[in-house]
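Entry 12.
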Amino acid sequence: MKTALFVLAILGVFTLTQAIDGSAPVLDDNMINEINSVNGGWVAGRNARFEGMTMNEARQLLGAIPFPSHKHKIDKIPVLKDIPETFDARKQWPTCIHAIRDQGQCGSCWAFGATESLEDRFCIASKGKTNIQLSEQAMVSCDKTDYGCQGGYLKNAWLFLEKTGVTTEACQKYVSGSGAEPPCKKTCDNGSAPTYYFAVKGSSKTVETEEEMQTAIYTDGPIESSFSVYQDFFSYKSGVYKHKSGGLAGLHAIKVLGWGDDTTGGKYWICANSWGLSWGQSGIFWIARGIDECGIEDDSVFGDAKIAP
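Predicted 3D structure (tokens):
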């Protein structure tokens, strides 16, 4: 059984807080109604992305694997003295923040969060001159330090971007939505030679504080983070998410775009998911900020785009 959940169990870091029936529907009307019956700061509903899907099928999308604690190096970066109360990368760099993607039935969120963040950072660092969509497929198929559709480590993904780099989506299209990983290719889909894009060697950092995350985003653009996903998250529609109901399904990686403060739900992170447009706020979600909700502030990774001289 080679799955992200199995790897987590082997590492001894995955513990269910509430039993989950893997064959049960992921969308539970009783749970949705219960969440919406109280003023919890967010709204639940039946997202089309998960209609007819079981919990086991939904778990296939959760592919973030935590580093073993003895190898988990945390970096410290100088934080800004005057961090703004709100910030949205989509407004700051409107032509550089790329569209919501869909990873399909593949636990490749670790690759999506990394490549999506780096491509935005390329555009920002080059002032729009290098505005490309990077190939998640290149990482899913070629990064042998991770497990393709069965999950991956955020830090390993960024080290791969430093050492090996990835080509563009135009060169190698994403084809692992069915859950299968084709062999690593050294050419573009049309047989031509690929151009590779890299993170600067030695630039990738892992941080774990609210202020460090804000500094990284405000300075250079979106970052990749991971968090624990509970059953109720699959039903998220709008507002500031805080876990309310359901057992732990796994760990997930996403792109963090900024932050804000809501009069009802409080402080939040603005995150781009890779579950397509038929989930959440057209693929976007807000999650509580400053209280390490679901571990969102435990493991954020980013690096600098290597701009050609």
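Annotation: The first strand starts at residue 42 and ends at 44. The helical segments are 4-11, 29-36, 55-59, 89-92, 109-125, 136-142, 154-163, 210-220.
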